[in-house]
Amino acid sequence: MIFSKYNKSFYVILMFFGFFAACEQRKPNKYDRIQAILVDSLNIRKDYKAILVLEDGSCPSCQKELNAFMLQHIDNEDVLFVVSNDERFVNLSELKTLNKDNVIVDNRKLFYNKNIIDDSAVIVFKNQQIDTILVLSNSDVLQRNLNYFSSLVWTK
After folding, report:
1. What is d(CA 69, CA 76) in angstroms, rounded to the nearest whole number?
2. Which of 1, 60, 112, 129 has CA atoms 20 to 30 A from the CA of 138?
3. In the chain, which ranges are E strands?
4. How many CA atoms, within 13 angstroms, populate the side-chain half-sphere of residue 128?
5. Rounded-to-integer distance, Cα 47 and Cα 84, Å
6. pLDDT digits over 4-34, tens only?
């Protein structure tokens, strides 16, 4: 009798922990959050090798250089170009008016507001995972990071 009383308590505790473990949700990783932004918010269904996001927090000269870089490489269909910039420091009208599938104007600043990136950046993917995130907001590293990005995307 005493054994069965403890046995029932053991099963109740075991069921409680089992229920708790089953209800615990996995926190989505950064790649899953990016995919959610692309599919759910921006209606993008294509897998890209990289995403280049132009945010407005970077220095004005960096924004101008990124604008020029994007316009120069806009025909590369392996890269998604996301413009999340209010044009305080640089005129992006040419970029924003292009009718290309790989150019998105994101006025909601989803990558910034969803804590994916803090500033202009390149997100490079490999095997459906994030391979590299390069910050593009600092003039000291901008050209070096763009060169590295180019070597990752255009040479493979």
Report:
1. 12
2. 129
3. 50-55, 79-84, 103-105, 121-126, 129-135
4. 4
5. 20
6. 555 666 666 656 665 555 555 667 788 899 9
